Amino acid sequence: MDIVIIEDERLTAIDLEQTIKSVVPDCNIKAILNSVKVAIDYFKNEAMPDLIFSDIQLGDGLSFDIFKTIKITSPVVFCTAYDEYALEAFKTNSIDYILKPFSEDSVLEAINKYRQMKQTFSNKEYDYDNVINALLQKKDSTSSSILVHYKDKILPVRMNSIALFYIEVEIVSLLTIDGKRYHVTKTLDELSKIAGDSFFRTNRQSLVNKNAIADVSHYFSGKLSVNLNVAYDEKILVSRAKRTAFLEWLEA
After folding, report:
1. In 3-state terms, what secondary structure has residue 174?
2. Three-state DSSP state, 34
3. How many C-beta atoms surround the C-beta of residue 251 within 10 A?
4. Measuring CA to CA, how many Å separate 196 from each of 66, 106, 140, 233, 240?
5. Mapping DSSP to helix (H, G, I), strand (E, B) and coil, where does residue 146 land?
6. Considering only Cβ atoms within 10 Å of each terminal Cβ, which end of the chain, N or C, has fewer?
7. Both ends of the chain: CA-CA distance in Å?
8. Number of helices (H) and strands (E), helices first, in the chain?
9. pLDDT digits (tens, 9 = 90+) for 144-199
10. pLDDT by residue (tens digit) across 32-68?
11. What's the whole-model pTM score?
């Protein structure tokens, strides 16, 4: 069985590769593709694999952009940190999925489903628009999560449990409402796109959850100072240029 993995986080991709090989030792991982662009270039020149495991949110876009650009005839198992809100869309299009963090059991179950349904995948075309719409409509859902690496584990952290994302000594981290801190592999620009409307990019160093804001006070030169309801030592400032947009967002 030839398998292609589409995943932009290197450690997650390696973990998935090892998990797949542990449950299907005779499989062949043909490629690990880390972006929409790389995947499009790959599928333009290579034969389709038997099965694709693909993340949904990649650094340069949604993986669905690949399938809308290139005619993909292989069945796809989506590996996602999104929760069950997209379940019906996946079912409607006969697409399987596994929730991160995945396990040997969940990967094996997806592969077994592929084996059972193998004949029905022949010449099947998927309506990915339904899945895209389902995801975009719920992008800021409190059920969505982000993955963090902690020691030897990969942990999902709910977006609604995060007080803010911040940069400290060029490293992106998050602080949860209950005071836990984790490093994040994505940039603040990438996080701004997937965090949803509950978060506001107050400045270059921080992305704040509305639910974590205790109050806002005036600061020098027309700036605002944001005070959180969780312990955080650094001052969070909103520039004069962003002041109006921030207050409108806070009021909405």
Report:
1. strand
2. coil
3. 6
4. 23, 28, 4, 25, 23
5. strand
6. C
7. 51
8. 8, 17
9. 688 888 877 888 888 889 999 999 888 999 999 999 999 998 888 888 878 878 89
10. 999 999 999 999 999 999 899 988 888 888 888 888 8
11. 0.50
Give the distance, in angstroms, between the CA of residue 237 and the centroid of all CA atoms in the same chain: 27
Residue type present at position 148:
V
Instruction: Report pLDDT digits (tens) over 10-20.
Output: 888 998 999 99
Burial of 206 (0-12, 13-18, 19+ CB in 10 A): buried
DSSP 213-229: EEEEEE-GGG-EEEEES
SS3 call for 72:
coil
Arithmetic mean of pLDDT, 62-78: 83
* Reduced DSSP (H G I as helix, E B as strand, rest coil) percent helix, strand, coil of the chain, to 5: 40, 30, 30
Report d(CA 177, CA 45) in Å as an integer: 47
Residue 241's Cβ-side half-sphere holds a number of Cα atoms within 13 Å equal to 3
Distance from C-alpha of 46 to C-alpha of 54, rounded to nearest angstrom: 17
Residue 20 CA, distance from chain mean position: 20
Q: What is the CA radius of gyration of the chain?
A: 20
